[in-house]
Amino acid sequence: MNISKTDWKLFCERVPAWQERYMERLLREYAALLTKPGNASDHFWELEKRINKDKKHPGVIMQLEKSSAVWDITYLIRMGVITEDDLGEFSGELVETVKDLLSR
Known about the structure:
There is one protein chain. This protein is mainly alpha-helical. The protein has one domain (5-103). The chain has helices at 5-35, 40-54, 69-78, 92-103. The longest helix has 31 residues, at 5-35. The radius of gyration is 16 Å and the shape is elongated.
């Protein structure tokens, strides 16, 4: 799917902030995990498991390609990294395309 140059530029600018916000959420979850009652060793191994899973999540790392930007935005919404409200400055065409993909 095509994305306009303006939307592509905005997407590239926004992804780092979206990922930072998502990683802040992960850190809060990790802190809660580490401070709950239980054995330190259990917390350690659970945290390692979570980090290994989370570091592959698009909210942490993703390859930016213009040809897949619309799909990436849709995926970021589905995965809870962003919401439709985060698309406020994008073109109406892009927003409608994303909404269409989300409804499928």
